[in-house]
Amino acid sequence: MNILGMTFDDLVGEMASRYGKGRCHAAMLYREIFRRGNPDWHRTDLFRASPDLTRQLVQDVDLWPGRVQQQQTEGDLVKVAVVLRDGQVVESVIIPMAERTTLCISSQVGCRMGCRFCETGRMGLRRNLTAAEIVGQVYLVNFILGCPVGNVVFMGMGEPLDNFGPVRHAIRVLTDDHGFNLARRRITLSTVGLVDGIHRLAQGGAPLPQLAVSLNAPDDRIRSRLMPVNQVYPMADLRRALLAYPQRPKGAVFIEYVLIEGINDRPEHADALADFLRPLRAKVNLIPCNPCSGRPFRSPAPEAMDRFRDRLLTRKIFVRKRAIKGQRVMAACGQLGKNI
Ligand code: SF4
After folding, report:
1. What are phi and psi of 338, to 5 degrees?
2. What confidence tier does 45 reach under pLDDT thresholds 50, 70, 90?
3. Is pLDDT at 293 greater than 70 in this prediction?
């Protein structure tokens, strides 16, 4: 019984069907694990009073989130490599922010989307993560490394909507009010724009994460060159899906735009991007292109990035430049998986 992949209702069902127990035992177990990270949950009074049940549960409950293989730090950022049961490795990145810590998690080992500027894409897809392995990254950082996680972003290795079922279930576990109880606005799912997945997510009901889209181009010609997914889901289809995605009253879709010198950084690109975004409530993050092995892509100079940002601002687009963090330890955007 891999409890890290279970919602409270899942656990209630298992406790009833396996052991004939009700919500009280499920509530205690769930709270000890997801609220307190207590590996000695079986020593609490309720479980000490039921030794037979507890013996059985100790055998059945699997609470293993993986083993930390390596931690690399750059400033206050920490990249954590975690070994899974089958020996595969995933990476998560702890990013302390002003008010709360953000954890960037992976949804797959590798990725098959093949974005040209991304190290993970060069790995290809090795396998999908289970919901328990996804939630395990949060559990491990929160309770084993002792770093309380306030925001979760699906921006690590993998395309989350390409592993739809486990990712959606992991979001249910992370937002479960008997456990981690993260608010919807504290979870961001970043996608390359799998239009079918966006529709499926929207139709699946609450809890809906905030959506971020890795756009990176002002038009289909440039986007298809950088991101093969655009040949299947062109930008007009993507925009229709974003317009249909339910937002909170003051919510917006985050648009990630990796700036690459000479490719997508000219003033006319900023103008075309502004036109594309006009019907959307969108917030643009400009990200300098990070070095990626075997590719000639480079970030524009800071002044050129400022000019691109200012051009968007004059077109009344909400935009900010993302600070460069984690390049040295290959923890920055598009760099995960380099050393796996
Ligand atoms: S940017 Fe994201 S979707 Fe694209 S190859 Fe990298 S991990 Fe996959």
Report:
1. -60, -40
2. confident
3. no
Residue 26 tokens read as 């499920």
**What is the Cα–Cα distance from 173 to 35, expressed in whole angstroms?**
12
The CA-based dihedral angle spanning residues 306, 311, 316, 318, taken in that order and rounded to the nearest 10 degrees: -30
Confidence of residue 296 (pLDDT cuts 50, 70, 90): confident
**DSSP category for residue 62:** B
336 pocket-lining for ligand 1 (C-beta < 6 Å): no
67-321 falls under which CATH superfamily? Aldolase class I (3.20.20.70)
Pocket test for ligand 1, best of 155, 192, 230, 330 (most atoms within 8 A of CB): 192
Question: Residue 38: what pLDDT?
Answer: 94
Joined together, the tokens standing for residue 68 give: 């930390």
- Domain positions in the chain are 3-60, 67-321
Compute the CA torsion angle 66, 68, 70, 71 (nearest 10 deg).
120
Instruction: Specify the amino acid at residue 322.
Output: R
Distance from C-alpha of 107 to C-alpha of 85, rounded to nearest angstrom: 16
289 a catalytic residue: no
**Stretch among 81-85, 143-147, 225-229, 244-248 having the lowest mean pLDDT:** 244-248
